[in-house]
């Protein structure tokens, strides 16, 4: 009798263990899903501690449309993020990025949402210089201010050949300061960041934006393929964002 009881208990434990493993293997979605951003500059991440910035507003916007705490934005440096992305257990999204930046131009490695906004990298000089960018070769002989750790196609290649002097800073806003002081000839700065700067300083007349930018691109969200459920949940909302006055008001608040 006692032996039979022990066998029943043992069988129950095995069944419970098998159930737990199955649930773990199925990878039940844990909420909120993390949304990582690495652009530590306004308007995207203004203050990571108080969660101020467009990337945080995005998660709050999605949560309001779903009526639950579905997404949560956090800052993570790009190098650490790229390392995490290589792991099979990476259960998070990356916001404000483009397939080309992650070597996925054909959009085969990851799932990519519709754009959350359109942006461009402006080539900015002083109003006195009024430099007009045509192509990377038009920068020959110039001293250019760029963001540390970022790759700029066509420009970095000429820097490597010693034909352009590159000066790195930790902030695009620092490059605007260097332009004012005449320490660099031109800088490449996101239009969204420049608009935010101009909103508070109102001295854009001292700068000149080249008619042609260095680049134009959509900012989207990268989603690992095993998070198909997340993609199916948020992408329809993102597709409607260009016509949603609430989201348009969020974008306008940073301009």
From TrEMBL:
Secretion signal span: 1-23
Key words, A-Z: Signal
Record flagged with keyword Cell wall biogenesis/degradation: no
Membrane spanning residue stretches: none
Family per similarity comment: Belongs to the bacterial solute-binding protein 3 family.
Protein name (Swiss-Prot/TrEMBL): Amino acid ABC transporter substrate-binding protein (PAAT family)
Organism of this sequence: Permianibacter aggregans
């Amino acid at each position: 009798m006692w032996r039979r009881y022990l066998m029943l208990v043992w069988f129950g434990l095995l069944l419970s263990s098998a159930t737990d493993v199955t649930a773990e293997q199925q990878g039940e979605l844990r909420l909120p899903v993390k949304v990582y951003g690495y652009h530590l500059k306004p308007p995207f991440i203004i203050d990571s501690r108080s969660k101020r910035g467009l990337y945080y507003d995005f998660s709050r916007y999605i949560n309001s449309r779903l009526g639950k705490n579905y997404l949560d934005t956090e800052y993570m440096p790009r190098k650490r993020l790229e390392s995490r992305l290589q792991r099979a257990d990476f259960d998070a999204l990356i916001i404000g990025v483009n397939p080309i930046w992650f070597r996925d131009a054909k959009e085969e490695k990851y799932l990519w949402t519709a754009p959350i906004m359109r942006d461009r990298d402006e080539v900015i000089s002083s109003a006195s210089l009024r430099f007009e960018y045509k192509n990377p070769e038009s920068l020959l002989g110039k001293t250019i201010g760029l963001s540390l750790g970022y790759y700029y196609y066509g420009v970095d290649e000429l820097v490597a050949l010693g034909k352009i002097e590159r000066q790195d800073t930790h902030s695009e806003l620092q490059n605007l300061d260097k332009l004012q002081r005449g320490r660099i000839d031109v800088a490449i700065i996101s239009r969204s960041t420049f608009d935010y700067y101009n909103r508070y300083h109102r001295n854009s007349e001292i700068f000149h934006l080249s008619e042609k930018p260095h680049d134009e691109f959509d900012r989207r969200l990268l989603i690992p393929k095993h998070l198909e459920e997340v993609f199916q949940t948020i992408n329809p909302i993102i597709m409607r964002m260009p016509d949603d006055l609430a989201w348009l008001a969020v974008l306008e608040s940073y301009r």
